[in-house]
C-alpha cells in the first residue's frame, strides 16, 4: 500500500521539478526577465495605427567626458545585453553610449508592421534628437551593420564615424540564396529549439565555443517556451525578409563619412545559409575576402582584421576588439 502511494507522489514531484525547470528557462518575448547591465528606458513610437515602444540604454561616461557619443546597433539574433563589455570600455574612456533594442528585437515591441531599414534608421534618428544628440559614432554589428550603413547614408550630418563589425549584407543574398516567403521562414522559426540554436551559434558565430556563450543561447532559446513565441517567430521571419529584400551592398560607394570595418576573418555568415548546399555555402560568406572587397569600395575606409575570430569579435577577441575600436574612434 505504501509503495502504491509513494509512486504517484514521486511522479508528481518529478513533474513539478520539470515544470519548474521549464519555468526557469521561459522568457517573455520582450525579455522582461532578462537583466540588462544598465537601466532601460523606452521611446514611444506611433506607426501603422499602433502605439509601440523602443527600449534603449543611455549610459553616461564614467569619467573625463569627451563630449562624444557612440551608438551601438545589435545583430538580428541579439539585443543590447551582449554589448556590456563594449559599453564599459567606451564609458571608461569618456564616451556617452546609447544602446537601442530595435523595434522587433530585445525588450522593444514586436509589432506586425512593414519592417524596413529606412524606417528603423528614422526611429533611431528620432531617438537621438530626443536625447539632444546632434552627432554620433554609429557602430553596427551583423544586421546592425546594414542598419548603420543605411543610417549613415540617410543622415551623414549626424554620423561622425561609421563603424561596422562583421556586418551582414556584404553580398546580395538574392543572387544566390533561394527565395523563401515570410510564411515559409515563419514555419522555420517555429521549429527553433535550444539545441538547434546552440548548434547554429557554434557553427556560425564562434571559432571555439566557451561556456560564457551559453548565456546567449539561454536568452535566444528562452523565448521559445513563451506562450507568445508565435509572435516572436513571425517578427523574426519578417525581419529576415527585410534583410533579404533590402540590400545595401550596392550603395557602399555612396558613403561620405569616415568608415572603419572590423572583420573577424573566420566568419562565414550567410543569411539563408540553411537553404544552400555545402558546395554553395563554400562559395559565399567568406569575410576574409568580403572585408577587403567592401573596404575598397567605401571612400577612404579603414579595414581592421582579427585572426582567430568569427562573427562576433567583441565577444570572441574582446581585448583586441576594444583596442581597435578605441583606435578607430
UniProtKB/TrEMBL annotation:
UniProt keywords, alphabetically: Hydrolase, Signal
Signal peptide bounds: 1-21
Any one of the GO BP annotations: acylglycerol catabolic process
Coiled coil: none
Any one of the GO CC terms: membrane
Hydrolase among keywords: yes
Example of a GO MF term: monoacylglycerol lipase activity
Occurrences of domain AB hydrolase-1 (ranges): 69-316
Keyword Hydrolase: yes
Protein name as catalogued: Alpha/beta hydrolase
Organism (species): Pedobacter cryoconitis
Amino acid at each position: 500500500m505504501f509503495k502504491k502511494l509513494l509512486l504517484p507522489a514521486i511522479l508528481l514531484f518529478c513533474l513539478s521539478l520539470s515544470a519548474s525547470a521549464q519555468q526557469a528557462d521561459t522568457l517573455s518575448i520582450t525579455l522582461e526577465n532578462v537583466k540588462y547591465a544598465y537601466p532601460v528606458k523606452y521611446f514611444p513610437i506611433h506607426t501603422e495605427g499602433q502605439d509601440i515602444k523602443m527600449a534603449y540604454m543611455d549610459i553616461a561616461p564614467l569619467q573625463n567626458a569627451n563630449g562624444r557619443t557612440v551608438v551601438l546597433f545589435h545583430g538580428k539574433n541579439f539585443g543590447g545585453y551582449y554589448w556590456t563589455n563594449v559599453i564599459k570600455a567606451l564609458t571608461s574612456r569618456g564616451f556617452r553610449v546609447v544602446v537601442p533594442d530595435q523595434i522587433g528585437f530585445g525588450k522593444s515591441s514586436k509589432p506586425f508592421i512593414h519592417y524596413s531599414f529606412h524606417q528603423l534608421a528614422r526611429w533611431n534618428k528620432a531617438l537621438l534628437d530626443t536625447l539632444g544628440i546632434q552627432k554620433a559614432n554609429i557602430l553596427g554589428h551583423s544586421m546592425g551593420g546594414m542598419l548603420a550603413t543605411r543610417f549613415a547614408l540617410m543622415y551623414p550630418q549626424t554620423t561622425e564615424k561609421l563603424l561596422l563589425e562583421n556586418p551582414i549584407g556584404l553580398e546580395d543574398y538574392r543572387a544566390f540564396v533561394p527565395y523563401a516567403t515570410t510564411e515559409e521562414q515563419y514555419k522555420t522559426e517555429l521549429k527553433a529549439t535550444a539545441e538547434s540554436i546552440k548548434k547554429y551559434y557554434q557553427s556560425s558565430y564562434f571559432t571555439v565555443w566557451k561556456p560564457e556563450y551559453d548565456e546567449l543561447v539561454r536568452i535566444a532559446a528562452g523565448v521559445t517556451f513563451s506562450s507568445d513565441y508565435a509572435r516572436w517567430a513571425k517578427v523574426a521571419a519578417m525581419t529576415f525578409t527585410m534583410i533579404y529584400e533590402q540590400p545595401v551592398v550596392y550603395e557602399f560607394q555612396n558613403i561620405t563619412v569616415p568608415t572603419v570595418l572590423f572583420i573577424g576573418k573566420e566568419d562565414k555568415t550567410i543569411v539563408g545559409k540553411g537553404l544552400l548546399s555545402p558546395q554553395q555555402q563554400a562559395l559565399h560568406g567568406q569575410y576574409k575576402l568580403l572585408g577587403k572587397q567592401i573596404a575598397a569600395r567605401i571612400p577612404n575606409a579603414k579595414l581592421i582584421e582579427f585572426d582567430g575570430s568569427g562573427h562576433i569579435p567583441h565577444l570572441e577577441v574582446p581585448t583586441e576588439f576594444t583596442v581597435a575600436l578605441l583606435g578607430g574612434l
